[in-house]
Amino acid sequence: MESRRNPRAVVDPKVRQVGFFTSSQPDSTQQPDPIASESHPVSSISPSGNSLSPVMIPPPRHTSSDTFPIRAAAASAVSPSSFSYSSRRDFPDGSTTASPGRVSRGSFAKSSVPAASSLPGVGMDSMAAAKSSSVPASGLTTVSVVNMPAGLSEKATGMEVQSDQKKNSKPLKEKTTKAERRALQEAQRAAKAAAKVEGGKAPPVTSGSVASTNVKANKPAKPASQKNDGVAAAGGASEKKGGPSEKDRKKDAPHPRMQYDDESRVVKAKRRAVVKQTEAKNRVELFRHLPQYEHGTQLPDLETKFFQLDPMHPAVYKVGLQYLSGDISGGNARCIAMLQAFQEVVKDYSTPPEKTLNRDMTAKISSYVSFLIECRPLSISMGNAIRFLKNRIAKLPITLSESEAKTALQSDIERFINEKIITADNVIVKHAVTKIRDGDVLLTYGSPSAVEMVLLHAHELKKKFRVLVVDSRPKLEGQLLLRRLIKRGINCTYTHINAISYIMHEVTKVFLGASSVLSNGTVYSRVGTACVAMVANAFRVPVLVCCEAYKFHERVQLDSICSNELGDPNAISKVHGREDINYLDGLTNNANLQFLNLMYDATPSDYISMIITDYGMVPPTSVPVIVREYQKEHLLV
Amino acid sequence: MWRRSASFVLDKHQNNKPISLTPSIDSPPPHSMADENSNPNPISAYYQTRAAHHGIVTSDWLEQAQAAVRRYPERDYSVSPGRPFSVIEEFNNWRQQPDLAEAVAAIRALAAVIRASEATTMMELEIELKKASDTLKSWDTTSISLTAGCDLFMRYVTRTSALEFEDFNSAKSRVLSRAEKFGEISCKARKIIAVLSQDFIFDGCTILVHGFSRVVFEILKMAAQNKKLFRVLCTEGRPDKTGVLLANELAKLDVPVKLLIDSAVAYSMDEVDMVFVGADGVVESGGVINMMGTYQIALVAHSMNKPVYVAAESYKFARLYPLDQKDLEPALRPIDFDVPVPPKVEVERSARDYTPPQYLTLLFTDLGVLTPSVVSDELIQLYL
Predict the structure, then answer these.
(1) Is A596 helix (H, G, I), strand (E, B) or coil?
(2) Strands B205-210 and B274-277: what pairing?
(3) Residue B275 lies in a domain
(4) CATH code that applies to domain A263-421
(5) Nearest CB partner across the interface for A622, out of B4, B6, B376
(6) Domain holding B104: CATH number?
(7) Parent domain of B151
(8) Which of A45, A207, B212, B360 is the most buried (most CB within 10 A)?
(9) Could you tell me if B136 and B172 lie in one domain?
């Protein structure tokens, strides 16, 4: 397998180290020869071992024949981590299942979907090129991915070294383990071949045991696998996951706010991934902790797999596709769609033998949630709803029969939707309408569902006001709102966000929607909202935020960077229907140009005058009070 | 009202109505006691009462008051048979007492309702109380402490009725005793507030006071009794002339007092150490609604980094949330200019203004010394 190693033919893209980087392992001398020459420039770029973070991809990616050597080289250049060598070594291997595990860890330079289609049965080159496409193979057999974890456990030692926690403590050991891992991989490949025959967990266990003998004494496989869990547990320790156990690891949802610049966790996530996403090439350094995928690549892939994904319930699958394509957007709509899909899941659920309904259903829900996250990261409202659902499942009395439990759960979900979303919206409308007076000029941004209801209801009450709809690229959601308002006969004006300071002088009130309100009063909402609120504040115009109480969260966020969602960069570069100003078309791959399409931003509480919720009109400082008093009520009920 | 948008200005010119004479308080009577419930006066009854307490009588006011008094005896017994009791009359009787807070008067009136009620179940009693409280509220929509007091009492009653009382009479008597105790609570509240504020008055300080709040007066009285050396600057408080009254009272306590005209506040703010005001109502944002001029003083004090302390009992917390000055129920009062004002000239007759929470430093309440953001916390716990 060493013969497959080829010298790197391309220079890696520039790496700018931003943010927290732990010290790297000494990488250069330990690398296999081809990369020895490269490792120096690599290490010279950054002292840290993460010099090439997993998302670093050399430019030409799509030609399958070329990509293999390049990929290998690139992979090898990622060398300070354990990933690279593993990927290089994998290719000669004929077994498809062996490589995915290595490959997925080795590189996040995912090929595009066309390569994926060439996966099965193609030779080494396309296999290498279609590194990521091999992952769909593992994705298809999500259950069998379990093979990977144990097999990878000893790899985890390398990964652990890579990961932040362990990095500083084991620079020297890494060298030896790499050498050992080569041998390990040979053994594993053989084991995997056996595993394919057996299709069980035994081979990984044997390979794990083989590996354990090879691994340094102070890193037995068991602690390695524990470390593996440890990483997962560390990631999942905070809120949203149940503790990962060996059995449930495959079903655990990755932490919804997983940081995507931590390779080990991303790898684990990819192992379980159903949706094969291709990582975007040109990423802004500051936002590396957020996932960014090539848009438009997942849908066809997912559609073809509709009938093959056994573990996935069709309703959940459908909702996931709708998220991916953007058919459903907006916090309330997404949450309701997801909850209704879960209702279907509950309806069709039947407890497998030897399992309890609580645990099994929770695990199932978690796996569905992880699928939904892959389609589109969860909004905070969805997170709260999932927490509620898991809580209700956990609180089901053991004495209930299965059908009773199912009906109870379904009615709980129904009640949640009715009370927390639909009725809440009615109450919000009732309160907000009292603030609209005759002669008001109301400004709104984007297309918030709550604000739309308020405006329509105020119009029904025959109040005389006019509306200013502010919109922004690339989503241009304001146009939807505009249509709906005009249909009802409301006097509207439409403008883009660039003109905010121009029109703000004639505005009397600003109504905004929110994806969530955080505990320090920060409003987390569609990008552009902060702009509108700040300009309104400068003009002393009151800003009213309409938000249901189930969207409140006890988290605190100080800026828009640490947690956000990245959209499709092509949406920025392309202006639909205006061919003459499409100057940036085709520049998405340029190394000197990175597109940043943020979806959310955080508005500090100083710019908000009042928040209208179903608990009444409260100042932004009262959000933690409501969270304290009422969120535990519906969790503990 | 002028709007920032030209289109609305044009509209207004076309539909011009004289706004100075709009009776702002009459609201459609809620039920059978039709005649009695509409306030005969276009002036805020609340501010009339305050003026009466202060002993300030303007000629128009006197006329209207006399007219009202004349009207009442007829109305008392002309309503639906079997109900000679009138909650409004009761309320008015109580509120005439100068030392009684508005909310307490309301609660006492509601207590009288309970006493006179012939209900046999808690639910029926609650319904009657609700009706009476709505009557009171609609009779004077401008008084915030009235509304707040009624709401508070209703809340207490519903909470009590939620408890398991086998005997209706015992529940009723419990509610009644609580209502009666409320009056004492109110007086005690003032004492508690006075005690809490003593730490903030240090020897040699200069306090600026606006309006004649009984709570603030209690604070100053106690400070004087504790032999603290301080000086008080009173604003004149046009049109109520509360400053003169307060100056009189303080002079009796041997506290050095200086009277300012309202316009001299900024001029004197340098020598002021702190500002004390009372409140007609404390709103959910943490701001206060108080006599006209409070906002001005708070703005000046804030820009000169002087603390503004508000003394208010907790029953004045109301579930309102004004966004700006005009977002309140207009409460008008007659303003005497000593010279006749030509009819074409509009007069701003609003009696109160809203001070946003960012200009207030602390609130002294019987619940403790609070920051403005805690008001919403308290309201949420109380009403939800």
Answers:
(1) coil
(2) parallel
(3) yes
(4) 1.20.120.420
(5) B376
(6) 1.20.120.420
(7) 83-188
(8) A207
(9) yes
Closest residue in B to A621 (Cα) is B373
d(CA B365, CA B317) in angstroms, rounded, equals: 10
C-alpha A420/C-alpha A426 separation (Å) is 10
Q: pLDDT tens across A583-599, in order? A: 777 776 777 888 888 99
> Tell me, what's the pLDDT at A254?
52
- Among candidates A435, A509, A619 on the partner chain, residue whose Cβ is nearest the Cβ of B284: A619
**Each residue of A464-519: pLDDT tens digit?**
999 999 999 888 899 999 999 999 999 999 999 999 999 999 999 999 999 999 99
Contact B323 A505 (CB under 8 A): no
Compute φ and ψ for B311, nearest 5 degrees.
Answer: -110, 115
Residue B115 lies in a domain: yes
- Residue closest to A541 by CA, chosen among A512, A517, A513, A498: A512
pLDDT digits (tens, 9 = 90+) for A124-161: 444 433 344 444 443 344 444 344 444 444 444 444 44
> Which residues in chain A are closer than 8 Å to B317, comparing Cβ atoms?
none
Here the ipTM equals 0.74
Q: How far is B345 from chain A (nearest CA, A)?
A: 24
Which residues in B lie closer than 8 A to residue A609 (C-beta atoms)? 285, 323
The enclosing domain of B325 has a CATH number of: 3.40.50.10470
Does residue B136 sit within a domain?
Answer: yes
Of B6, B319, B381, the CB nearest to A616: B319
Domain range list for chain A: 263-421, 435-564+599-633
CA nearest B321 in A: which residue? A617
CB A159 within 8 A of CB A264: yes
Q: Among residues B171, B62, B63, which one has the least CA distance to residue B124?
A: B171
Please report residues of A whose CB lies closer than 8 A to that of B384: 615-616, 629-630
Q: Is there a single domain that holds both residue B121 and residue B212?
A: no
- Unique residue bearing structure tokens 């730490």: B199
Tokens of A439: 């002669």
Number of cross-chain residue pairs from A and B with Cβ atoms under 8 Å apart: 63
* Residue of B1, B8, B377 with shortest CB distance to A622: B377
Amino acid letter for position A25: Q
Residues of B with CB under 8 A from a CB of A: 1, 3-8, 11-12, 284-286, 319, 321, 323-324, 327, 357, 373, 376-377, 380-381, 383-384
* Domain A435-564+599-633 in CATH 3.40.50.10470: yes
Task: Tally the domains of chain B.
Answer: 2
